[in-house]
Design goal:
By secondary structure, the chain is an alpha+beta fold. About 25% of the residues lie in helices and about 40% in strands. It has a 7-stranded antiparallel beta sheet with strand order 1-7-6-5-4-3-2, covered by helices on one side. Helix 1 crosses helix 2 and helix 2 crosses helix 3.
Length: about 140
């Protein structure tokens, strides 16, 4: 069974800058994880179809969540499609598919984020809440248009 959720946000920054926040390690480390630390040295982004990405979220001194996946589609600065493996169980063969579309609104950017795959309804609710916090943090660090 495939299920999904979507989030649409408008950022007060040009599309190229919002796209860069997803594709440049220093920027990605700043917002990914919201209040959890993602040390820059744990971020690897090989932004090309077939390229791997990874980041380790430091939730607290004892908890590390290794996020990783693969880029399926990269169309700068319009679209990213990537997989997301289960950070709680890296051996889980199931992946989530994430699609991010960046629409130019003349100095602002509408970002539509869709995650689909095999999580249960309850997990998708929590995951959507998490991504929403990540995107609040992303917005805080973008230069204003």
């Amino acid at each position: 069974m495939t299920d999904s959720f979507s989030i649409t946000r408008v950022f007060d920054a040009p599309r190229e800058l919002v796209f860069a926040a997803w594709t440049e390690p220093a920027q990605f480390a700043r917002w990914f994880g919201a209040d959890s630390e993602v040390p820059l040295e744990t971020v690897s982004l090989d932004v090309r179809p077939g390229g791997a990405w990874s980041a380790i979220m430091h939730v607290d001194p004892a908890t590390r969540l290794p996020f990783h996946g693969e880029y399926r589609e990269v169309v700068p600065p319009e679209r990213l499609v990537l997989t997301l493996k289960n950070p709680f169980d890296p051996s889980d063969p199931l992946v989530e598919l994430v699609t991010v579309v960046f629409k130019d609104l003349g100095g602002k950017t509408e970002m539509t984020f869709v995650q689909e795959g095999n999580l249960g309804a309850e997990e998708y609710i929590k995951t959507k809440e998490g991504w929403s916090l990540f995107f609040d943090r992303l917005a805080e660090g973008l230069p204003q248009a």
